[in-house]
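Notebook, p. 212. Picked up where the previous page left off. The plan for this session was modest: take the two constructs that came back from the sequencing core last week, fold each one, and keep the raw output in the notebook itself so nobody has to go hunting through shared drives later. Recording the first one now, exactly as returned: residue sequence, then the structure token string.
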Amino acid sequence: MKKQPQAAKSGNPRTKFTAIEALPRNEAESQRLIHELAVHQVELERRNEELRRALQELELSRDNYAQLYDFAPVSYFVFDPVGIIQEANLAGSLLLGTERQRLAHKAFAQFIADAEGREIFHRHLSSVLQQQTMLRCEIKIAPPNGIAIYGQLQSAAVAGKTQTNLILTSIVDVTVRRQLEEKLQLAHDRLEETVQERTTELTRMNLRLSQEIVERKEAETGLQGALTEINQLTDRLQLENIQLQQVMAREEGYGEIIGRSDAITYVFFRIDQVAPQDTTVLLLGETGTGKGMVAREIHRRSSRQGRPMITVNCTALPANLIESELFGREKGAFTGAHARQMGRFELADGGTIFLDEIGEMPLELQVKLLRVIQDGEFERLGSPRTLKVNVRIIAASNRNLEEEIHAGRFREDLFYRLSVFPITIPPLRRRREDIPLLVDYFVTKFNKKTGKKVGHVSQETLKTLQGYHWPGNVRELESVIERAVITSQGSELQVLDRFAAFHTSDEKAEQEVKALADLERDHILQVLHKTNWRVEGKTGAALLLGLNPSTLRARMRKYGIRRP
């Protein structure tokens, strides 16, 4: 057994033992504290190293920002709330023609050309600070010993080192744009003056003509000469009016399609409805009514206008070649196929394909066409590989496809796929009021082609042309005018064709009148819906239809049109 330690001679033996026993615990605690201090020391040194690296990166970033700010191609300024320049980059000093050091603490207003601009500038700064958002304005800047420019300011509130109310502003030179705008406005003003002068001149001419008519009626000897002069001047004014209407029609953006009648205006309305969509369109109408032009106009107004529009005339291709023309072929697919050929659908990928005279397509190909419409897929002749395309389809036919279905020559399912959005193009006999516009358009066209200067079309000629039934429609009218321009002697159009009188059965005439009435009723309904059933005023249906409000109300009563 261990011997018990001998108690000390003086003091409490138990107290001395407790002190001796506590000593190792204090040393351990001290060691632990020393170790923790060492750990904390290492941690502090690590954090100090991280802080030093962060400071270096911050200084580098600040240097990079300073370089970007100083050498940016755009002029930058920092203003205080009253427009005193605090900082400017090199581009800013060049813009004002003043060294950067001399710009500091100068009022930017002294570089603004006029009092109005200075007022705009101060309101601009105040609005930026109040709204705390990015704002723009334009003012005229006049650097000392420099050329005045127009500057566009774009400003945002920023926080500075010594205050949270500073404004960072970029200035872009928009002088060229402003000069172009001023030139455009000047040209517009001159045009208005010219129109006003011409209107005044025409008013004076009309007044003088009226006076001459009264005087010539009093003098029987000069009556015939006065009437001839009046007719000539009337024809000239009508020609100018037709030219003006044609210009207006072209400005409305319908390109080759000429006309302002209710029947053709409804076609324009249908084009506007469907063109922005990718919907399949079926164009119906007689030969020569302009179905191809309507197809081109739909493509031109669509999102696919930058891609090709491929036209396929189903009557112009032999039946044994239609399939290879539409879907392409591989080399050796049939006798004479010496090379691989892409089909029209591949060429139209991303764009539009126009299938003219779709009623002429053979039945065996209609199934393949139906698959393209449904799935966008087909195979080339002689190839098992399936191709996929994204094509908008516009089809056209001068046949009654429903009758073709009953006769077993056209697939009913294909008809329903094609006629998602049908548009019927009216024949020329249903829009006779467009004939003067078309005549003028074709005369101008063939004048350029032949080098002639035919410019006058008499009222008698126009009445003759408007009285004919035009079985060949616009295409026939174009041929007649081309012949007339070639054979005319002098400046007046001489139409040598002899037009047979047009007689129709009462039943057919009634059908045409009914069809035109239905077309007009639908057009009026569409415009009323568009204007929220407002009849009068600048946004009313009467103005859009070119009718007096009372006339429009009478037609609404006639067709039984009532607001829901």
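Okay, moving on. Second construct, recorded in the same format:
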Amino acid sequence: MLNRYGRFIVRRARIVLALAGVVLVAAAVLGFGAFGALKNGGFDDPAAESTRAQKVIDEEFGGRVNLVLLVHATTGTVDAPAARTAGTDLAAALTGEPGVTQVVSYWSTGAPALKSTDDTHAMVLAHVDGDEKQVRDRTRTLIDRYAVDGPAVSVRAGGDAAINHDVNGEVGRSLAVAEAIAVPVTLILLVIAFGSVVAALLPLIIGGIAILGTFAELYLLGSVTDVSIFSVNLTTALGLALGIDYALLIVGRFREQLATGESVADAVVHTVRTAGRTILFAAVTVAVALAALLVFPLYFLRSFAYAGIGVVAIAALGALVVAPALLAVLGPRVNKGRLPWSKTVRGAESPFWGRLAGAVMRRPVLASLPVVAALLIAACPLLGVTFGTPDQGVLPKQAASRYVADTLQNDFVGNDSAAVDVVTTGPVAAAPLAAYARHLSTLPGVARVTSSAGTFIAGAPAQTGPAGGPAQTGPAGGEARKGPADAALGRPDAQRLSVVTTLATKSGAAQDLVRSIRSQPGPDGAGVLVGGNDARLIDTRHAIASRLPTAAALIVLTTFVLLFLFTGSVIQPLRALVLNVLSLSATLGVMTWMFSDGHLSSWLGFTPRPMDTAMTVLLFCIAFGLSMDYEVFLTSRIKELHDQGADTAAAVTRGLARTGRLVSTAAGLLAVTFFAFGTSSVSFLQMFGLGSGLAILIDATLVRGVLVPAVMRLFDRRIWYAPRLLRRVHTRVALSDA
């Protein structure tokens, strides 16, 4: 089939290119609308208890506080006349802003909790209303207008809305810097890798097709479902990555065939039949790894599946349609602009990789044991890994919302903006509500509980344990004192309680408190929902962890089936899966050592914190997919040589010699692209970029160069084993490169 398709491309090359150009222009027009159709959120499980609690708060109580204006008195205290006037005017002006509700300030209430312990800071709390886009736009306007320095006070913005604003801004700036570094370096390396200017343009063409086509896909999907704006970043990075991979493979094979004396037409057909089939399988394998993200309920992760599957499919389409047509038109001119020192045939065997394979297979155990030991040692930090969700800790310390969050944690007794939210799912009388609130106030770590039945303050609160660990607590304080009620927290069919704690947000003790509240019976038998930042962390981790086995099973099963159909062996897929898991475990171990344990934090400028749950899953799927890309590249050539009569040792040696330069070159180019994210000021972007780059390099060197030849030599002919029934299935399907 591919043979006939290749001849069709040769005959209709110019028509194919013209039609592709029209489709590309249409995709570009659609794609420009993607940015307006995508959203900023997607980190929460829609079915989680914390999400349902937030829905009740939004519908019944007008939403929770998501904007904190921290007011600092330039001189004296916030009770000084000038500071009081400035703070009062700020709250009044904020009250008049469209889309801003529930404005509360220290100066309007006199609440001690809204003033710092040293009397130099005070809070103005508000809720910015609207959907994600409206909150984003309104927050930007409010920060520009009110978070300024004045003669009496200086104002900084914090809270969830401001944190999201700062994260988006830092991500945008970081990506601009990363692209400014990666793009010119990659262009130079492409010219060097391909040896000619004309050939170096092919990855950019394929990558551009993939990126613009996926933007159009995201626009269409974003018009009917929730899609994260961060999927755009994956689209650009993965589009360029696959453009490099597929162009290196197809151009290298085309040049190799031309060097044997084949005509341009025959070289294109041969390239489509061999390299084209490899690209087809590699694309399906990468898409399968990314499709596992669809099982997660967070649309942040599902969005990467939408973008990843789209960019893989369109990149493969560009490599199988546009690239052969271009090669048919260019012919030997693909070498135009060749560098003086470059070799004529970039697809020729590499002596280095051939010698390496030969050396490894002479002493497979001796060669592989140090590599396996190093990877296992690198994976050890995973034994103590902890996971979290993005918050102000991913930002640099100088970011305004990070400064506000740190100040609220260190200088205030409790943080109203980070309170645990408890809402009832039905009406509750005043007396049982008061008893319930009083009981919650006696739980370790609770500073006070505010409700429509009163504010309850128990005895001495617990303190957070070392490194944010479990609280060091004795018995809870005695009988709670009762303060003023907040009528705004009561509704005929629901009640809301604000549980303010002294515990560090997202610490182990804070999460224990949420679990303790959830374990308490509701007031008068009413159902309760517990929300807030700490509850969201618990629910998000559960949503991801509960679906990880399903995602892993899908990846393992589909990868096994695809590699079996590709190789005809049941050992080869198992070997590929084991080696990929080993290399990715080492990568995640190194990332844990760096970003969670805090090593190199001073060099890279981040604050050590738990590994970001969603980004870790994304990193694994992306790195696994690209690793399988290289797996198919190498195995396809080995299988082709084996089917031509070479024994396993010769097939591996020559296969690695033929593909080693290709894989290492592609990996080096991709690593540059991903490592550029290390310049980011947002720690989860640094982790994703450095982790992806490291995983690619480990796979292309230690795994492909050492472990694959060693395992194949140890198994020898048994590496191609399959039961008789499965051999008949493979023979019928005939999905090899031969």
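Notes on construct two before I forget. The first strand starts at residue 67 and ends at 73.
Flagging for discussion at group meeting.
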